[in-house]
Amino acid sequence: MTAKIKADASGTKVTIGTAAEDALQIDATAKIIKALAPYLLKGDIAAQSLVPEGYVELASGLILQWGLGSGLSTGPVATNFAIPFPTAALCAVACSRTTVGAIGIAQCAVTNLTASQVTVGLLTAAGSWFAGGFYYVAIGF
Question: What topology is assigned to 5-140 in CATH?
């Protein structure tokens, strides 16, 4: 599902989809969590680094990583994971950690994902790249 990001004429109010679209996204997320539950609950933690840019590796081989980065005003920026995923990165999400007042962040998007890094860009409601901070979470094995 592709999010429909809309900004009002002033660029100060941004909405993402309709209530029905948001409900579908929540339902899809719940189904993903339900599908991952057997892997998340299987066995002990094999390794971990519980720091702001860290990870947890489960005995099942599933790895969850998180961190923060800073975008560029010239475009998306690549940020290295704490550890590379041995086999593959499955997915990543990012969100803005920057408040920019009237400019507004219309989109914080993962533009590329590899086993060793995630690339994230921040766009203003006006459609220009923004040099602001972001958080990310990635899943792989």
Answer: Immunoglobulin-like (2.60.40)
> Which residue reads 């923060």 in tokens?
68
**pTM across the whole model:** 0.69
- Which residue ranges make up each domain of the chain? 5-140
CA dihedral 107, 108, 113, 118 (to 10 degrees): 160
**CA 111 from centroid of its chain's CA atoms:** 10
Q: Are 131 and 71 in contact (CB under 8 A)?
A: yes
Lowest mean pLDDT among 42-56, 63-77, 110-124: 42-56
User: Which residue shows structure tokens 């459609």?
Assistant: 127
Report d(CA 6, CA 110) in Å as an integer.
18
Phi/psi-derived region of residue 126, left when phi > 0, alpha when psi is between -120 and 50, beta in every other case: alpha
Residues 6+ apart with CB under 8 A from 41: none
Question: For the residues 29-56, what does the mean pLDDT come to?
Answer: 78
pLDDT score of 112 more than 90: yes
